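The records we work with from here on pair a chain with its fold. These numbers are not coordinates but entries in a learned vocabulary of local backbone shapes. To see the layout at work, look at the sequence and tokens printed below.
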Amino acid sequence: MIGVEEILIRAYNIFFGASVLFLISVGLNIIYGVMKIVNLAHPAFFTLGCYAVAGFGMGIIINIFGSSSITPILIVPPLFAALIVVIASLLIFPLFLFMSGRGDEVQLLLTYGLLLILEDLFRLIWGSEPLRSSQPYELAGSIYIGEYIVPVYNIYVIVSALTVALLLWFFLFKTKQGILIRAASMDIEMTSALGADVRRVLLITVLFAAFLAGLGGGLYIPSGSVMLGMSVELLVLAFVVVVIGGLGSFLGSLIGSFIVSLLRTITLIIFPELELALIYIVAIIILTLKPEGLGGGRKW
């Protein structure tokens, strides 16, 4: 019989996995929701956030704040990563304008090509060896749940992802700019006809999605490592999330992330060799029964 401690550990693993997947996929859904672009390069922005912290950001932050100041070591790296990714996406924004309104085949070819270019840039700048920046992870320490050791930093990631989800909901549903983004996702021509600066809305959408991806990468890297090819691996998981949850749906990002994390946790315990296979089977079943995804058919 499963004890309380084991139930808590499994729940913790599910929520940690779902938090990371949500941070990866939500920006992809936002860009699709507004610009109708399936951005295959989006996971590379998450990877760039990881590299920004592990490659040089953490060293700068430690030189400024010291290596024992836990608050800035926890808070500053994700924001630093988000800033770097926003700057990079600002340089790429003209490409998104070019793709907007074009056929799916053009979008898929250009965004996947962009992902490969970014992967080559990562190799050029940071080399082919895996990088890690574990100072926040180590400083936060661990707690015990029965005989299990739980890193406090991973709990911090879960809380941060929940906070991001709540702030994102507030931004999209309770602020003027969020309402403009939702309006553009429903009818961009009508939004423009009503006097909104659509180009500005599109720019904010791209930068906002990049900010979320960079923030996610900066949060993730102390508890993991970043390596070449990571963007492609994340692309597979991110797309399973949005397929299950529904393209363009904020709610779908939450639902899909939780389901994929739940399936991965269960299969890793029972049938590790069937991890990806079971996820794909469930995705196929959901698409068969509800092609728009579990969160689809109701924007955001």
Q: What stands out?
A: The CA atoms of residues 99 and 106 lie 7 Å apart. The beta strands are 142-145, 148-151. The chain has twelve helices and two strands. The two ends are 40 Å apart (CA to CA).
